[in-house]
Fold this sequence. Notes:
The protein is an alpha/beta fold and 529 residues long. The protein is 35% helix and 18% strand. The protein has helices at residues 8-18, 23-30, 34-41, 49-59, 63-66, 102-110, 129-135, 151-163, 174-177, 194-203, 218-231, 245-255, 277-281, 288-291, 299-309, 325-328, 410-413, 418-421, 425-434, 446-464, 493-496, 513-524, and strands at residues 2-4, 71-73, 79-81, 118-123, 141-147, 169-171, 184-187, 207-210, 235-237, 262-270, 313-320, 337-343, 348-354, 362-369, 372-376, 385-390, 397-402, 470-471. Strands 17-16-15-14-10-13-12-11-18 form a nine-stranded mixed beta sheet, with helices on one face. Strands 6-5-4-7-8-9 form a six-stranded parallel beta sheet, with helices on both faces. Strands 1-2-3 form a three-stranded antiparallel beta sheet, with no helix packed on it. β15 and β16 (385-390) form a beta hairpin. α2 (23-30) packs across α3, α11 (218-231) packs antiparallel against α20 and α15 (299-309) packs across α20. 47% of the residues are buried.
Amino acid sequence: MDKKDKTPAECIAALRRRNHLSQEALAEKLHVTRQAVSRWEHGETMPNPETMRALAALFDVTIDRLYGAPVWEGIDGNAVFRSYSETAVGGESGGNSFCGNSHEKERNNMNGGKMKKLRIGVFGGARGRTMIGVLLHHPDAELVAVCDKYTPLLEEAQKTAKENGTEIAVFEHFDDFIRYDMDAVVLANYANEHAVYAVKCLRAGKHVLSEVLPCETMAQAVELIETVEETGLVYAYAENYCYMTHTFEMWRRYRTGEMGMAMYGEGEYIHDCSSIWPQITYGERSHWRNRMFPTFYCTHSLGPLITITGLRPVSVVGFEMPQSKDMLALGAVSSAGVEMVTLENGAVMKSVHGNLKREPGSINYELYCEKGMMETGRLSPLQPLNVYKEGESRCHGDWEQYAPEPQIAADAAKNYATHGGSDFYPTHFFIEKILGRPDGAWSIDVYTAVDMGICGILAYRSILAGNVPVRVPNLRNKEERDAWRADNACCTPEIAGEQLLPRTSHGYVELPDSVYENVRRLWLDGKNA
């Protein structure tokens, strides 16, 4: 039998022609632009996983075939496929996976056999420091530009790059930055502006890695998803708490099936930011942290539970804690929040986060399943994971207590200790996903990102309505999107317009200018509160 090994670009083009479709006709069937199809067929971009599934269904082939799995033409003329699906997360060839390395081979071929590094820029020089560090040392990518409105951060980025033997371009204005020659952009700007800038980057032909959170409104969620679908570019969500040493291990072990189905879980992100409030809000009344509602910043606590189980949220109930006099004195009106989330299998997850009093802060997760449970070591940093598995007899089982080690790209991951060892993986898996490699399957796609983020948005609707359950739509389904397309309700006046929401359920509070002036003085003096 003759072996034929095609790239994904060649597979898509060949299957389109075999089905007698023009690029325009294929684009119409997939609800994308003709330019997106053209970029796929020229190897410039890859369709996202949802689009790959749609292509496989349309052409009546396996996902592996689209990713360039080798094909042997048998004597009877039938194609025999070798499956790579065992490398995918969960072992499902139709899942969010990039199987095989044909796209990487294609990039090599386009550059005379030498791998061309991905050119990546970072928007946001403060939170972006972590991504800058990863990109400066990644074998398959290079940092080429940084954008920030604060000049000292640009100077810092240039200095760091130079110390690592490279020169980068810097920009104070996004419109100049986005025109620079880049393959992809990391969004590390203000948390309530990620969807707005993600859409701009995607429409400019750039892959996007977005810091938390994915969107501020339901309308932004719809637009973000549809832009990813239309462009066919990679969108990845940098929820690093899903990749902490212990939560990543829980994710890996749950997906083996050894724990059985999820029943109940808790995620806790308690971080008292009061002392550093001047350094992260600068005394700006309109800073997003001073405007956010209590359940907005939910994906650090909820996100790992969603990725570990792989289950979609279907309803949410929200709760707001009493207002903190300590935070009011610093300009923040809303308090900590709780989301009680029901998943599609009926399991319930509790997510709690905010400025509550505990030092050190608590980043804790526990998951109860049919066959046992897993929990992080809240008070035992040297033993961060505890696993209980029931044996053959009811109510009898064994405990494991151990400190997990990185399992993927371990040598590189060990160089990054911040945020529980998680800061390497979002950027690494983003690069792997663009290159079409198997480890890209661990990257968080736009649908999962939106699932996490809109739980917080809708939990606040629940709070304002008296803590009633609110249905979480499945925005993968196009027929569910129209109901939310014009829903701009949030606490940012410039975005919400007439749909402006109060920042707290506890009643209107107008803080005097002196509060913010005092915080700004502390920031300018380099002092904490």
